[in-house]
Specification:
- Helix content is about 30%, strand content about 25%.
- It has about 210 residues and is α+β, with helices and mostly antiparallel strands.
- It folds into two domains: about 120 residues, no CATH class; about 60 residues, no CATH class.
- The strands form three sheets. Strands 2-3-4-5-6-9 form a six-stranded antiparallel β-sheet.
Amino acid sequence: MKQRNKAKTVEECNVLDLRKLARAGAFQPDRWGQLARPFIAFKCNVPAGQESLVCTFSYLIGVEEVSVPVSFETTPVHFGGVRWWGHCPLLNNGQPCGRRVLKLYLPPGLRYLGCRACHRLTYRSVQKHDARVDRLLKDPRTLEAMMITSMDLPLVKSVRRMSLLTDALTKLDRRIARRQAKANRTSAAMLPSPVGSKNCSPAPRATF
């Protein structure tokens, strides 16, 4: 039987966080610099005949230098300023990916920075996820029955089942806590502003 290759995870990759570079003011024409972790040199400019900024990221794979050009765009944010987005530079089935991203990844053993989708990355938490937990949460009667009958099982099976039930109940508690927090925020937003707050305008004065 052929063994299925396990997908690489985000946690084992070198990660280029474009948000940190943006906060440091890196995305400007004729700007260059180096990053310590991961060790990457970058140089930004606006190519002739283009309007968008392009940053070339250079790093070593063994003794070979690899350079990856990444184009950028900006979108406005609600409270002023702009958000910088990079475009994934990889080819997907012969076509440029171009997906807007805030992070680029370099998995171990590969040469080029790219987005999570192109590298087919997953998270460790997803790999450890037990689908049986979701099935139990969708079927409360089965969950209750398993809790009642667990004590009648042999020790090994009882321990395994209790571990599964603990995961299910923990996830259920978190789901309830998130819904309660959302309900509290909604209730707070519906309350009238207190007198004297900045959002409360003074009542009009009567005229005679």
